[in-house]
Write a structure and sequence with these properties.
- With 188 residues, the chain is an alpha+beta fold.
- It folds into 2 domains: 113 residues, Aspartate Aminotransferase, domain 1, CATH 3.90.1150.200; 70 residues.
- The protein is 26% helix and 40% strand.
- Strands 7, 8, 9, 10, 11, 12 and 13 form a 7-stranded antiparallel beta sheet that branches. Strands 1-2-3-4-6-5 form a 6-stranded antiparallel beta sheet.
- The longest helix has 18 residues.
């Protein structure tokens, strides 16, 4: 999503507040470079894959950071004692970006939380690297990897694809170099 869209949402705020909001978004994007911009609930949002990573919005008397999970605020309760916190939102000073060190801890914990939400028994499975890039995706059936799977490198390039049947490699598997060039086919 273009930078202009976020700036438009923040355009009615005083310049110092708008800058604090944009700086918070920029810091989050630096921490999780594979995150993408989106709008959810009329708020600037960062997503990884189909999952909300966080939302950042300004209000009349404060700014709010929404880590897309009430569990995150409980996890960092002692580190958030200087903030006004409610289930799912952390209020911060309207003229100062959200603290980078704490932002990093929260975003990395959120990625762990997202990874833990995917089923290990049946259904769609996605695992993310700490940078927000996809590590692997595919399907589980009866607690086993089953169906078409893709595996990625940390830099986001596709590494391997293939099919699993009841947890075992099946059929044609392809391996790619970092430029997505096919380098090997293996048959199982």
């Amino acid at each position: 999503m273009p930078k202009q869209k976020f700036e438009k949402i923040y355009s009615n705020f005083p310049t110092e507040q708008k800058n604090a909001l944009l700086e918070t978004i920029k810091n989050a994007e630096t921490i999780v470079p594979h995150s993408k911009r989106s709008i959810a609930w009329a708020m600037p949002t960062l997503v990884i894959g189909k999952d909300y990573l966080c939302h950042v919005q300004g209000f009349k008397n404060h700014n709010s950071f929404f880590p897309s999970s009430g569990n995150i605020t409980k996890l960092f309760e002692s580190e958030l004692d200087k903030f006004k916190v409610s289930n799912g939102t952390i209020q911060f000073d309207k003229y100062v970006p959200f603290p980078k060190v704490l932002l990093k801890k929260i975003l990395l914990a959120r990625i762990d939380e997202i990874n833990n939400t995917y089923p290990k028994k049946s259904g769609e499975f996605i695992e993310y690297y700490k940078n927000g890039g996809i590590k692997s995706k595919g399907l589980y059936k009866d607690s086993k990897m089953d169906g078409y799977w893709e595996f990625y490198r940390l830099d986001g390039s596709l590494m391997r694809t293939g099919t699993l049947l009841k947890g075992k490699q099946y059929g044609e598997w392809a391996t790619y170099d970092k430029l997505d060039k096919l380098i090997k086919k293996t048959f199982f």
